[in-house]
Amino acid sequence: MAAKRLAILGSTGSIGTQTLDVVRSHPELFRVDALAANTSDEALERQIEEFHPAVAVLVDENAAARLRERYRGNTEILSGEAGLRTAATFDEVDTVVTSMVGFAGLAPTLAALKARKTIALANKETLVVAGKLVTALAKEKGVSILPVDSEHCALFQCLQGERRDTVERLILTASGGPFRGKTTEELKSVTVEDCLRHPTWSMGKKITVDSATLVNKGLEVIEAHWLYDVPYEKIEVAVHPQSIVHSMVEFRDGAVMAQLGLPDMRLPIQYALTYPVRESADFGRMDFMTRMNLSFEPPDMKTFRGLALAYEAGKAGGTMPCVLNGANEEAVAAFLAGRIGFLDIYDCIEKALDAHENVAAPSFETLCEADAHARAFVRKLLDNKEV
To answer: What are phi and psi of 145, to 5 degrees?
Structure first.
């Protein structure tokens, strides 16, 4: 069997580097034809030297210039949004791993779909902000979107061989993050360092903050709605601190299917890349003979308002999820920079949603405008010290 040809967008980030771990484990199964990163020229250069892609992209022009000045190999060094589109649509590529963070992942994903590439989707924001556009385009082009998020990969596995009209509920599990059980009063004083100490997962800074606010779980609810065509009323969240059960599906006869595994993102990454085949792997194994306790509890959506805000935006549809995402990205960046407190993230999102006039059936251009307006709105709030 010929090796599967990959483009990895966001190759120097958490998901990208773990994808390359999977490639290292199965060099006979995969070939890397394109790599793309934002600003990490030194990390990308090391990846180029190891995997020898045909093209490599740095979105940041200055970072690309630095790499071009040093590099003397055969890989073509591209830059900017045009370079990103080239990587996403590279002729020889079969599968595009979309692991760029945030709204920035939408345009290259759409380009890859138009070029009829299979999408291994790790950029949940793509479906959050443009679920209708993306799923319609995938259907039109006959292209598969294979979920890489551990929760959505779990749902995907639980639904194999099942009729969708028999699904009663999708149950997304959440670790609860580092602040599970804390009160609003206690959250007023938490620091960035506190926030980044996730109890079970090792992730990038932005998604770790989103996990702490439960905004990440809200984005995953919206993503699940579009991936599996299930109404929001049938998508629930259960806090599961051990992060062993990655999600569950309840069927109309009361049976519940769950996918279990250690909290290791390489497992869902490999499954997305090798589907429908399960390949061997040296990932850790669970020992059921030890005292393994699995617990579940409802999320505290009053304290951790991000999840409730995401449900509201998702049900409203149109441009509201895009505004939710844009406002959150801007607020999280401000929090990481020490400009606002943890709870201020919620205020930024809520005020941006309240100020926005929803567009029910947005085009790509309208979504770009909504994203830009949401970010500008939050920046204005911060400049005027209104949060």
So the answer is: -110, 110
> 135 and 164 in one domain?
no
What span, in angstroms and rounded, lies between the C-alpha atoms of 379 and 376? 5
The answer to whether residues 293 and 336 belong to one domain is no
Pairing mode of beta strands 76-79, 95-98: unpaired
Contact at 8 Å (CB) between 119 and 98? Answer: yes
Distance in angstroms (rounded) separating the CA atoms of residues 130 and 198: 29
Backbone conformation region of residue 37, classed left if phi is above 0, alpha if psi is from -120 to 50, else beta: beta
CATH of the domain at 91: 3.40.50.720
User: How many domains does the chain contain in total?
Assistant: 3
What distance separates the 2 farthest-apart alpha carbons in the chain? 63
Contact 139, 116 (CB under 8 A): no
Q: Are residues 28 and 138 in the same domain?
A: yes
Question: Is 70 exceeded by the pLDDT of residue 89?
Answer: yes
Is residue 299 assigned to a domain?
A: yes
Phi, psi values for residue 177, rounded to 5°: 70, -170
Contact partners, residue 34, CB within 8 Å, separation at least 6: 6, 7, 8, 53, 54, 55, 56, 57, 86, 87, 88, 90, 93
The rounded distance, in Å, linking the Cα atoms of 86 and 83 is 5
> What does pTM read for this prediction?
0.95
Nearest to 84 by CA among 49, 120, 60: 60
Buried/exposed code over 283-297 (b: 16+ C-beta within 10 A; e: otherwise): eeeeeeeeeeeeeee
Q: For residue range 106-165, what is the model confidence (pLDDT) as tens digits?
A: 999 999 999 999 999 999 999 999 999 999 999 999 999 999 999 999 999 999 999 999
Same domain, residue pair 87 and 154:
no
pLDDT at 203 over 80: no
- Does one domain contain both 21 and 57? yes
C-alpha 40: how far from chain center? 19
- Cα separation, 96 vs 98, whole angstroms: 6
Q: Are residues 207 and 255 in the same domain?
A: yes
> Of 99, 127, 147, which one is at a domain's C-terminal end?
147
Task: Return d(Cα 269, Cα 266) in angstroms, integer.
Answer: 5
Q: Which domain holds residue 79?
A: 4-147
First-to-final CA distance of the chain: 57
Classify residue 31 by its DSSP letter. Answer: E
Q: What is the DSSP string of 223-250?
A: HHHHHHT--GGGEEEEE-TT--EEEEEE
